[in-house]
Amino acid sequence: MIACILPAPACRPAPAEVHVGSKKFTESVILGEMAAQVARSSGASAIHHAQLGGTQVLWRGLLSGDIDVYPEYTGTIREEILRTADAGDDDRLRAALAAQGIVMTGSLGFENTYALGMRETASRRLGLRSISDLRSRPELRLGFSEEFLHRPDGWPALKARYGLPQADVRPLDHDIAYRALANGVIDVMDLYSTDAEIDHDRLEVLADDLGQFPPYRAVLLHRADLAQRFPSVIAALKRLEGAIDEPQMRRLNARAKIERVPERQVAAGFLKSRLGMEAPGAAEGRGRRIVRAVGEHLALVAMSLSAAIVVAIPLGVAAARRRRLGAGVLAATGVVQTIPSLALLVFMIPLLGIGTAPAVATLFLYSLLPIVRNTATGLAGIPAPILESADVLGLSWWARLRKVELPLASPSIMAGIQTSAVINVGTATLGALIGAGGLGQPILTGIRLDDRGLILEGAVPAAVLALLVQGAFTLLGKVVVPRGLRLGPGA
To answer: Which terminus of the chain has a lower count of CB atoms within 10 Å, N or C?
Structure first.
C-alpha cells in the first residue's frame, strides 16, 4: 500500500483481492485461515494477514478498508467495539454495525467466552471452585492479558462485581501467562473457554457464578461492499455458519498449539472433513519463509532509513546554524523517540491503515534523532579557524557546507546513520503486529505457540541482519569519510 497525505480510505482503491485479518491468538489465526481458504475456494484471490494485534487494530483496519473480513466474538463487539449495553441481542448488534458499513454473519457454531483459571492441584488444595471463592484469597497473584485488564467487560468489571481484593495483578501476554502459571509465577489467569491448554495443562476453570461474562459467539465481520465486489465469497463464507462446535474448536486449537501443526494445515484439514473442501496451494517451506521475511524486513529498513537520511541531515544542518531552531528540532525528535514503538504504530493506523505504510512511517520517525543530533554535533564541533579560512577563500555558504563542513562532520554523521540503522532493524520486528511482515512474524508465532524454533527463525536472522547492517555502514564510512578524518588502526 502506498501512503498519501489524505486519510487512508480516500487514498485507497478497491482491492483486487480479499484481505482477511486475524488477531494474535491461535484460534483467531485458525478461523482467519479458514475464511481465507473458503474465499479462495470461490475463485477469489485472498490474502490472510495473521496476528494483527488486538481488537482495535482489526476493527480500524476493517473500517478503513485495509481488511475485508475477520473473525470476532459478539461479546467483544458489544463491549469493546460498540461499547454500549444498548446493543442488545444479535439483531440489534447487526443493525448497529450496518450503520458503519459492516456486516455480521451468523454464529460459526460455538462460543468462546472469558473465564478465570488456575492449576487444578492448586484449586483443590485451596478449595477454590468459583470466582466468588477468590474473595477469601487476597494473596493470590493474578496474570491477565492487556486487553482483559482494560476492556469494559474484563478485569475492572469483574473486580467490581465480585469485590475481589487481589492487588498483585500483572499484565502478561496470553500465551506467556500459561507458562507463568505452569511455573508458579502467577496463580490465576484469564482464559478463553476453547483454549487447548485447559485440558492439556489440567487447569480448573473457575465458575462464573454471578454471570459476569456476556455471550461470546464466534462470528465473521466483513465490509458491506464485499458483497458487491466478491458475491461468490459471501456465499462461500456462509458455509462456515454453524459448522464448528466448541469441542471441535478446542481440538483444532490443540492441533495447532499442542501438536504444532501449522494453522494453515489445521484449517485445511477441518474444511476438507467438514465441508469437503480442498485447500489450494502448499505450505511454505522454512527456507523460503525465512528468505521472504528477510526481504520484507530489509524493505522496511531501507525505505524508512533512506527517508530519514534525506530529512534528518538538512534538519541537523539547520539545527547547527540556528541554535533556537536546533533546540526545537532536537526536542521534537527526542519526544518522538520517547513514545513506545507499539503505541506509535497504533497511532499511525487511522492515518495510513495497516501494513507497510504505518510501519515505514514509524521507523522513519524513530530514525531521525540519532542522525539529526550527530549531524548538528559534528557541524558544531568544527574549529572556527577552519570556517574563517573558508570564508577568506570566498566560498559561498553552500560551497562551504558541501566542501568543508559536511566532509569534516562526516564521521559524526555516519555514526548517527549507523546507530539509526541498527535500531531500525530491531524495531522493525514490531511491524508484524500491524501486517507489515518481516522477521517479527515468526517471532510472534513462536511466542504464541511456545515454539523456540520459530522464535529463533526470526530472532537469529534479525540479529545477523543488524550485524551486517552495522558492518556495511562501517565499510561505507571508509568511502564517505575523508581518509584523514578516519580513526582507528587500518583506517
So the answer is: C
End-to-end CA distance of the chain: 43
Q: Report the candidate in 249, 153, 140, 236 with the shortest Cα–Cα distance to residue 198.
A: 249
> Contact at 8 Å (CB) between 403 and 284?
no
Helices then strands, counting H and E runs in the chain, come out as 23, 10
Q: How far apart are CA 141 and CA 150, in angstroms?
A: 18
Which of 71, 81, 67 has the alpha carbon at shortest distance from 355? 67
How many Cβ atoms from other residues are within 10 Å of residue 133's Cβ? 16
pTM of the shown model = 0.76
* R_g over Cα of the chain: 27
212-227 confidence digits (pLDDT tens): 888 899 999 999 999 9
Cα(170)–Cα(188) distance, integer angstroms: 10
pLDDT single digits (tens) 251-291:
999 999 889 888 999 999 999 999 888 765 555 677 888 88
- For 128, the 3-state DSSP assignment is coil
Sign of the Cα torsion 375, 379, 380, 383 reads: positive
Cβ neighbours around 167 below 10 Å, total: 9
Q: Which strand ranges, in their side-by-side order, compose the sheet holding 188-192?
A: 169-171, 142-144, 188-192, 114-119, 203-206
